[in-house]
Amino acid sequence: MPASSPKSRLRLVLEALCIVLLCSAAAAWWQWRTGAWNVETVRHADESAHFMNSLAVADYLRTGCTATPLAFTKDLYLHYPVLAPLVWPPLFHLLAGAWMAVFGLSEPSALAFVALAAGAGLALFFALGRQAFGLPAAVALTAALWSLRLMADLSTAIMIDVLLVAGALACAWSCARWLEQPDTQWTRAGLAAGLWGAVKANGLAALPALLLAALLWRLPRRHWPRALYALAIAAALSVPFAVVSALLLRGHNPPESGGWAAAFDRLAWYEMNVRWQLGIAVEALAAAGLAWTCIALWKRRASSLDASMFASLAALLVFHAALPLSHNERYLAPMLPFLLYFAAASGRWLPWRGGPALAAASAAVFLLVFRMHVAPQSPAGFHDAAQLLRRSASTPLRVLVASDELGESAFAAEMAASSPHHRDFVLRAAKTLSDSDWYGGSYHLAAASPQQTAALLEDLGVQWLVVDHTPSAAARPDQRLILETVASLPDRFPQAARFRRARHLVLYRAAHPAAPPRRPIAYSLSRSLRITVSEQSPEGR
Predict the structure, then answer these.
(1) Measured on CA atoms in the order 459, 461, 464, 465, is the torsion positive or negative?
(2) 47, 304, 388, 540: most buried by Cβ count inside 10 Å?
(3) Along the chain (541 residues), what's the average pLDDT of each consecutive run of 10 residues?
(4) Spatial distance between the Cα atoms of 57 and 73, rounded to a whole number of angstroms
(5) How far apart are CA 220 and CA 511, in angstroms?
(6) CA–CA distance, 409 with 418 (Å, rounded to integer)
């Protein structure tokens, strides 16, 4: 039967679908083992924002897109001030939002999408490994990637990075096919590179990766116009979002020092974390495989996939070393599958065909035995508080939460997920009782005493207070002011409930909230969007 027959293509599609589902089930197993479905978004600083951005897309689709996107987003931010639209490129949030519009506006629904994205990345890595080294090596490599601590961490949280891994591998595969068929595959390579960049800003490494792959492959001169067309497609899909993100974050992320010394320091930092993730043995295999690939590329004995994978890894390393950006362990995520690929490639030094499979199996055994780790997670208690308030007879609720940044964001996300059909007002102590820049500078309080704080909360119509009494969550002056207020004015803020989970939360009821509120809720976003999100004043209703 010809390889291009409809039955053959259907068989390949079904086989690919089965592999994706199997790998997604493996990622879901991580989530089940760690208890990720029952915990709040308190593990990563950006997790609540990623969930809320996705929920905004889902809710916008469910409500029939009756308002303009800006008006809808401003209204949602007024109720749940955790949104960060276009701070990251939108592909993850658009896909996760479409998924949640069908399967529910909840954290478990978002985690199911993360498992699917992680499964897609694992399936792509399996396909690449099978193409390059054969089936046994592909199985070993996929098991090795699945067992990494960073992959376990990122596939059990609502984070972008697992989709970034899938985008990087899809780009490398498309680039390899383009090198083999430069007349016909350049469009797909450009699209794949652009979509990689539309996941996260460091996906812009796809742009130099395309050029470097063409140079390493010694692409004939007659094909370079199409290479530039592919690059233009990739840039059109990714660069505008990076520019918007940079404009929104201007002044919030001061660059690190530049120059060669700083670049080498960053490379050393990433190498140290690679050693922590892979171990010295697997890192040494990867270094040997990279050396073999360099020699093979120079002698024109490497495959197009070798050239594409080498270019992608090099572009990622240069992106993070050359640009004066802050270090982040999550930036390693798209590099790890490339390093494991070259660990298997080190087996090509051996004088028999089973060398890559042996190297991949050695890496997998080492990682499964010595590096595999499933860290259990515990609920923080914000979900319990949100569920109790959700059963309150008074709607819409006005609730103030006082905790650290992770806790306040997580509680807002829990309230948003528990009331998808109407809007409560969640006020964050960090935004209501104080004002500061992105890093906490220029800090000043809106009230100077418990009495002034109580009056402010009553004027805003706050009915409930969720206060985090965990010692580590009382670092900012506004949090300490709230603790002092509820302790010194028990008649105005009597206790209603306690939640002792991973955190110690206390629910207080405001005895005298203004009804209607005497002061509207307002948030100034002048440092990023240069707009003000404000509730309509009671007098204007």
Answers:
(1) negative
(2) 47
(3) 61 82 89 90 92 94 84 90 89 96 93 95 94 93 92 92 96 96 93 95 93 95 93 95 82 66 87 92 95 95 96 93 81 95 94 89 89 79 92 82 94 86 85 72 81 95 95 81 95 95 95 92 69 62 35
(4) 9
(5) 77
(6) 14
Own/partner pairs, 510-515, CB within 8 angstroms, 24+ separation: 510/457, 510/458, 510/462, 510/463, 510/464, 510/465, 512/458, 513/398, 513/457, 513/458, 513/461, 513/462, 513/463, 514/458, 514/459, 514/460, 514/461, 515/461
**Which of 45, 41, 70, 42 is closest to 56 using CA atoms?**
70
Q: pTM for the whole thing?
A: 0.93
pLDDT score for 437: 60
Tokens standing for 195?
A: 């979509």
Q: How far from the centroid of its chain's Cα atoms is residue 195's Cα?
A: 15
The DSSP letter of residue 182 is T
Predicted pLDDT of residue 251:
56
Pick from 302, 345, 290, 307: which is nearest to 211 by CA?
307
The pLDDT score that the predictor gives to residue 522 is 86
- Rounded to whole angstroms, how far apart are CA atoms 193 and 196? 5
Q: DSSP characters for 377-423?
A: ----SHHHHHHHHHT-SSSS-EEEEES-HHHHHHHHHHHHHH-TTS-
Residue found under tokens 């006020």: 427
Q: What is the DSSP letter of 38?
A: G
Which value, to the nearest 10 degrees, does the dihedral of the CA atoms of residues 475, 479, 485, 486 take?
-100
Query: Phi first, then psi: what are they for 99, rounded to 5°?
Result: -60, -45
The per-residue DSSP string of 63-88 comes to TTS-S-HHHHHHHHHHHSTT--TTSS
Cis status, amide bond into 254, omega within 30 of 0: no
**φ and ψ of 124, to 5 deg:** -65, -40
Residue with tokens 């050359």: 322
The β-bridge partners of 426 are: 399
Those residues with Cβ within 8 angstroms of residue 248's Cβ, 6 or more apart along the chain or in another chain: 86, 87, 528, 529
The encoded tokens of residue 504 equal: 């110690």
**How far is residue 41's CA from residue 110's CA, in Å, rounded to a whole number?**
11
> What does the DSSP assignment read for 248-290?
HTTTTS-----SHHHHHHHHHHHHHHHHHHHHHHHHHHHHHHH
List the one residue out of 196, 194, 47, 38 whose CA is nearest residue 124. Answer: 196
Tokens 């798209």 correspond to: 334
